[in-house]
Design brief:
It contains no helices and 24 strands. It has strands at about 10-15, 20-25, 45-50, 55-65, 70-80, 90-100, 105-110, 115, 120-125, 135-140, 150-155, 165, 175-180, 185-190, 195-200, 210, 220, 225-230, 235-240, 245-250, 260-265, 275, 280-285, 295-300.
Length: about 300
């Protein structure tokens, strides 16, 4: 999937230490993060390389446009030393920018106890306790925009022993908590920058999803819902609502044959009038702080029919 203009980001950054770096000018014929459309809280993969010292670091970063802009590392990935870099003073170049939501695939199984508080590194929580009982899960503290986590009933008894999910701060779909009450239920939680939005995960039972066929095209999507879009017998058009969050998934690995066209009234989707989804994936669209629809996150999805 192309990342459009974000691939053209290359700019000077300055500062020292292991924390925030100040954003400077773009390299020749390239863009700054702000110039490519990054906003406060935008999360991205990128490489920072010192221009006069043997230091480079690949990390997950977050952008803050205040006072000229800064980037702050969220998750270390690789570096010239194999450990997080404490940068020396001097000019550095940010490049290789890829706008993706942070997907930190650490899976933790809750095997005992009545509650578990997720850490910033947790991606999926599986509740599978040896002694049955209700469980309270608290989502990670200090989430960043685009962060996604999953909570699953691995034991298959949530219908009797509910799993109650709460945010460390803020809410979930406008509510204080969300209760998983179906056996083997799985819910994905995505952070918009102000609250968590809950939707069905890719491995949720098919009966719990909304299946869309060509006969339903054009689909008027509803915010907060997840749709399995089945294009095996024809292309499908999806029209997004005014604001919110919508997830589309290629449950049948059919988008490469017949694509999904995503539009919204009177505006663009991810910077284009018609967004074409033609790779097998689960893709979430959400409105940003300016009310524009953007690709919030995507997950490569190869699920057998």
């Amino acid at each position: 999937m192309a990342h459009e203009v974000f691939e053209l980001v290359e700019q000077i950054v300055t500062g020292e230490g292991s924390g925030a770096l100040a954003c400077g000018a773009a390299s020749a014929n390239r863009l700054t993060l702000a110039g490519a459309g990054a906003v406060n809280g935008t999360t991205f993969l990128g490489r920072v390389e010192h221009q006069s010292a043997a230091e480079w670091q690949l990390a997950l970063w977050t952008f803050n446009p205040a006072a000229g802009g800064t980037i702050t590392p969220l998750l270390f990935l690789k570096s010239s030393t194999g450990t997080p870099i404490t940068f020396a003073a001097g000019t550095k170049i940010l490049s290789g920018v890829e706008m993706v939501a942070p997907r930190i695939h650490r899976v933790h199984t809750v095997e005992s106890g009545s509650s578990y508080a997720m850490t910033p590194l947790d991606y999926e929580i599986i509740v599978d306790k040896s002694v049955a009982g209700a469980t309270a899960i608290t989502l990670p503290p200090d989430p960043v925009r685009g962060q996604t986590v999953v909570v699953s009933d691995g034991k298959g008894d949530a219908g009797t022993n509910n799993i109650t999910v709460a945010a460390a701060a803020g809410n979930i779909n406008g509510l204080a908590t969300l209760v998983i009450s179906n056996n083997f239920g799985t819910v994905t939680f995505s952070y918009t920058g102000t609250q968590w939005i809950a939707g069905l995960s890719a491995n949720f039972a098919l009966s719990g999803a909304i299946v869309v066929t060509p006969a339903m095209s054009p689909l008027e999507a509803v915010s907060g819902l997840t749709y399995w879009v089945d294009t095996r017998t024809g292309a499908i058009a999806v029209h997004l609502p005014e604001t919110g969050m919508v997830t589309l998934a290629d449950r049948y690995n059919s988008w490469t044959t017949n694509a999904v066209t995503v539009t919204r009234a009177g505006g663009e989707v991810n910077g284009v009038e018609e967004y074409l989804a033609e790779d097998p994936m689960e893709i979430t669209f959400a409105t940003d702080g300016d009310g524009d629809w953007q690709v919030f996150q995507y997950i490569d999805l190869y699920v057998a029919p």
